Every structure is written in C-alpha cells, then in structure tokens.
Amino acid sequence: MTRVRVASRPRIPALGLAMGLLVLATPIGAAGDDGSRGDFDHAIVDNARQLIEQGRQIFRYDTFGDEDFWGGELHLHETIAGAQHGGVGPGLSPSAALGVGLKVDVDALPRGLRKQLKRGQVDLNDPATTLALLQLDAVVGVSGVFDPGGHITSVGIQCALCHSTVDDSFAPGIGHRLDGWPNRDLDVGAVVGLAPDLSPIATLLGVDDATVRAVLASWGPGHFDAQLLLDGKAFTPAGGSGATLIPPAFGLAGVNLHTSGAWGSVPYWNAFVANLEMHGKGTFVDARLNDLTQFPVGAAAGFADVRSQPDLITAKLPALHFYQLSIPAPRPPAGSFDAAAASRGQQLFEGKGRCASCHVPPLYTEPGWNTHTAAEIGIDDFQSGRDPDHRYRTTPLAGLWAHGKGGYYHDGRFATLPDVIRHYDSAFGLGLVDAEVSDLAEFLKSLPND
C-alpha cells in the first residue's frame, strides 16, 4: 500500500511557545522590568485626576477675563451694587437675584451664615447681602471684583452661570451645585438687561438701546440666543423669540456635537462661547463666520478670527473639555417612572417606534456626524438655517428627566415627552396608539437605565 505523506506543521520551539504564553498572560498595562509601562499608566491616571480638578475649577470659577466686558463696558456691577454702594439704582437684592434664576451655592456659605439664614436673620431684600454673597463666591456662575476696601469694581461670569444649577436642598434656589445641569430658571435676557449701559451690544447690532432691551426681554427663563451677535435675527418669521433652550452639559462623553445645531464639538463650543458669548480674552478661529450673507454681524465684527492677548482661554480648554466629559447624565429618582411601562417602551423604542435608528443605544444619538435636515425630522428650518451646516443635531436622550423644564426640542416647542412622540408618530406614520405613546414616554424618563 502506498502511504500518503501529510505535510507537517512548522514546529514552535518550546522556549518561544513559553514566551508567547507568558506575554499573553501578562495584563495589559503591567510594568516591564524597567517599570516604564507602569509609570506611564500612573501618569495617565494622575493626568486624568488633575484635568478633572482643573476643569471643575475652570467651569465653576473662571471668567476668562470677561469682567472687562460685563463690568468694564456694560457696568453690570453698578446695577448690582445700587446707589447706596457706589452704583446706580436700587441695587440687586438676593430676592431679586433668585427671582431671575440666579442660584446660591450653600457649600460656599459659612456655617454661621447658614444658621442665620435658617432663622430668618438675613435681609434678603438688601443689595448689601448680594455683595456679601459675591465676596464669598457663593453666586453660581457670577464673580464680583472687589477693591481692598470691599467695594465692587467689576463683575464677570462663568460657564456655570447657564450650565449649573443647585439641588434646592437648603431653600429654593439655594443648595449644592449640580454641574452640567442647565439652569432653566435663569432668565439670561433679564440678567443682561440689568446692565445700565447696553451700547456695546446695540452698536454691534446696529440698533438702539430700546430695541436691545426688548429683544432681551423676549427670551424668558431658560433661553439664550447664541446666534444673535452673528446674524442679528432676533425673532422667527412667525414673530417668536429666536432664543433656544439652554442645553445640558452632562452625558456628553462619546457625543459628537454639543448643541442643537451643527456648529461643532464640545471643545469647539467651549471656545466659541468663552470668546464670543462670554466675551473673554482668547483665540477663536472659524472661517465659516466670514460669510457676510449668513453672518452679517459676526463677519463685520471679525468674529471669524479672534486673537486677544494675553490669551486667557486656550490653555484652559483641555481641562474644561475633560471635566465636562466626566459629568454623567443623572439617573432618574426612584419612583419617577413606571418600570413595567418603561420596559415595554424600550421594545417600542427599538422596534415599532424606530427611535433607535437615530438615537442609537447606549449613546442615544448617532455615532459620527449626528445631524439631520429640518425636512427629515418634520419641522421648520429657522434655527438650522442659522447654523453653518443647516442641520439639527440628533439629541442625546440620557437624563431627559433633568432638563424637561421649559419643554423639549431646541426651542421648547413641545411641552411634554408624549407631545414629542406624537410629532414623530405623525411625521413618520408610525401608527402608535395612546398606550404605546405613554410607554415610550416612560422609557425616555428612565434614561439612563441599567
């Protein structure tokens, strides 16, 4: 019988096999003999901790030098102080400040002051109390500048003004900070409108003081018009305000675009806001803003290429970005949704409702360029038309329960989650019945879930 010879496999030397198994068994990131890999792993962890700490400080307390605008040009501090304290008018009392949505950080208050507040021994109708709170850095998102004699000489704002609130644990408007939560009580227009001199804004827009104040008054709580100083479009074609809802700054890890429009990523928007909206001192470049047709105000003002010296913004962008990405979407309170209905809603979300085709779990937005035209989502194109790419972002859904005040969508046009769902039911012909709409709403209220 003829034997068929089978080709033999190459033999692996025993030592080579042993070394290969040793490499496979070594944990990724374990230190080598010289400790270099382990040292760098420690460097990564240390860097992350430093970035979070630095970013938190920047987010909460850094004005980027914008006090030269808010105090130096608009003289907002004079209105806060009032005539009795070297300013103008009656001054801004804590009660009035809370009334326009400003918040107080209870952790910045000395224990004795907290006791006095509890006993009703602090005059919340006296502007002097507001000045004392500013000296304590207790007003969330606002910093006062004081001379050695304790007189306020300017005022600046921080990221936290719009993108933090408090938990009301001490009293309404007074509590522990909730960084990343949008302050939907804050009436930005009313706060800016307190300034005695709005001529820098009026000059930029080419209108008079009365017009600026009317536009600011139209925004209302929780709204801000970031594009106004670019295109001058204060109102929609139907006559409504051009302002949009303040977005959350939590749950952004893995999410491409930061806001409802297709402007850019988180660090882009940080640089945009710090330079152009907060009026800090830094560097910002976006050639798209040179378009005189779409951005007549911004192009004329040179907002496409801003280079201030000293630059007080650029070096802080990495830590600010890292801190924001570290803020998770808050989990819904126990008992705030029907768990059984939410379970049914999840099946609808991923099936009949077709929600997951755009709001891809677990990001609940689209990985990549997460945008759609107005026609694709069945709404008007006023706001998308103000953005460079004329598109709307696919909103991340985690933590919706924490920013429902003021409504849903970029401008709050839908009062409730069922209203949003019914819009898509109509636009896409989904054929949802009322019970399914309700179940879907319960699922959305449950995000982020385990």
Mean pLDDT: 93
Give the biggest sheet: 2 strands, parallel
**Secondary structure category:** mainly alpha
Output the radius of gyration. 27 Å
Give me the side-by-side strand order of the main sheet: 1-5
Roughly how many Å apart are the termini? 67 Å
Structure summary, number of beta strands: 12
Indicate the proportion of strand residues.
5-15%
Query: What is the helix tally?
Result: 19
What coarse outline follows from CA principal-axis ratios? globular
- Low-pLDDT runs: 1-26
Query: Portion of residues in helices?
Result: 25-40%
Molecular structure report:
- This protein is mainly α and 450 residues long.
- Among the domains are: 127 residues, no CATH class; 107 residues, Orthogonal Bundle (Cytochrome Bc1 Complex, Chain D, domain 2), CATH 1.10.760.
- Helix content is 38%, strand content 8%.
- It is built from 19 helices and twelve strands.
- The strands form six sheets. The chain has a two-stranded parallel ribbon.
- A hairpin with a 5-residue loop joins strand 2 and strand 3.
